Amino acid sequence: MPRRTTAILVPVSYLKDLDYSVVQQCMHCGLCLPTCPTYMETKLERNSPRGRIALMRAIADGQLEASKAFAEEMYFCLGCLACETACPAGVDYTQLFEMARAEAERSRVLERPGRRLFRQLLLDVLFREQWRLRLVGRLLWLYQSLGLQSLVRRSGLLRVLPASWRALEAKTPTIRPRFTPQLVAPEETPPGNATGAHYRVGLLSGCVQDLIYSDVNRDTADVLLANRCAVVTPPGQGCCGSLHAHNGEYELAKDFARRLLDRFDLDRLDAIVTNAAGCGSHLKHFDRLLQDDPRYAAKARQWSEKVKDISEWLVEIGFRPPTQKPTEARVTYHDACHLCHGQKIVAQPRELLATIPGLEVKPLAESMWCCGSAGIYNLIQPEMADKLLQRKLDHIEATGADILATGNPGCLLQIQNGLAARGRKIEVVHPVTLLARAYRT
Ligand code: SF4
Ligand code: SF4
């Protein structure tokens, strides 16, 4: 269980404590503005990266106190990092964004009893232990598999709920009947000869991924095994803390990172593989997250060097192209923000898809534009999230594709829900699932 944060000193100000070279990097050129989804929707400077960075710098300089307006602006930002890709000055928006949200939480300017309770229950209670998430997941699975969810939906009972709750209910993910430990053994070796493995890799099972996309974990393990990688999936991994780091709970994120580091024997692994872009982008920054922790700093540096997205790892080791045609279909690919902007991984997933016989890859307009999922953004900013989703769905439909592939559970769910609401029968899958199917054919 991760250590509680009470013994940890919380900085007086996250933004004032931040390395000033990060704070002052923006040269106000505005080149990032056309790539920022919130700015392009509102055309307001304060909703742009440049405007947000100016607010952050004013706080770091002591010219402004963190206010409610500041905090609301930081939560209106998607954290999609498109501005980071566009910026010629190399602004580290990832760090600025995390510190700005941590500053907003530290200053308690958004404090309301309901909000506090929601955040505590979600971030500190539910996500602290994987068994709690699985318990809730199991109950939800029973509710869904016994037909109670459809019954409640048909009965009209939901009409008594406020509109925002009804919208939330419609987004409830379908829970898988089996979670990762029932699908993936703690250690698996390539079929035939165990000594034939060329690599030994650790597999991240994730938290939400474990409940709603555990089959993607199985697919990932199968693809790794097919490429002569022994797969180690330690039990008790839990949440990596990405949700916490991106939502102002920086100290909690450190606790979760330490727990994960304790679960893996890094000296015996060539890589740590993740199939969730949002997690991968955070996992690669454990070195920075724990740089001041004398017990964990060295291991965190080793960790950050070894973390790979599944597509990145497969291309790096020269994966075996499948030879059989699983199906004939048109597929299009949506770049998850934290894969393309957060990790600069763009070519590799496309390379995987291009090698699968029978798939015709159709280009997607604005493939790097956020789909509105953005962690829990679609729950806390439903209006903007829906605008972005509709824009994404229009582009997906225009491709005429039968399958949409994307490498992040949040995007998978957001797009799946959006297409279902439109009544469109387009399959939404992780690229690794398509590769696994081809290997199995
Ligand atoms: S992270 Fe995304 S939404 Fe936020 S400022 Fe940058 S481009 Fe805009
Ligand atoms: S963040 Fe980068 S691109 Fe945007 S205004 Fe500043 S320097 Fe220019």
Structure characterization notes:
By secondary structure, this protein is of the alpha/beta class. Helices cover 51% and strands 7% of the residues. The strands form two sheets. A five-stranded mixed beta sheet has the order 1-3-2-4-5. Strands 7-6-8-9 form a four-stranded parallel beta sheet, sandwiched between helices. Helix 5 (68-76) packs across helix 7 (93-106). The longest helix is centred in the last third of the chain and has 18 residues, at 382-399. The two termini are 41 Å apart. The model is unreliable at 1-7 (pLDDT under 50). The structure holds iron/sulfur cluster (SF4) (2 copies). One iron/sulfur cluster (SF4) binds at residues 26-32, 49-50, 53, 83, 86-87, 89, 91.
Question: Secondary-structure map with pairings?
Answer:
Blueprint: H1 14-17, H2 20-23, H3 37-42, H4 49-60, H5 68-76, H6 82-86, H7 93-106, H8 113-126, H9 130-145, H10 148-155, H11 163-170, H12 180-183, E1 187-188, E2 199-203, H13 208-212, H14 214-226, E3 229-232, H15 242-245, H16 250-263, E4 271-274, H17 277-283, H18 286-289, H19 297-306, E5 307-309, H20 310-317, E6 329-333, H21 337-340, H22 347-354, E7 359-362, H23 377-380, H24 382-399, E8 403-405, H25 409-421, E9 427-429, H26 431-440
Parallel strand pairs: 2-3, 2-4, 4-5, 6-7, 6-8, 8-9
Antiparallel strand pairs: 1-3
Helix pairs in contact: 5-7, 14-26, 20-22, 24-25
Residues 35-38, 49, 52, 77-83, 93 line the site of one iron/sulfur cluster (SF4).
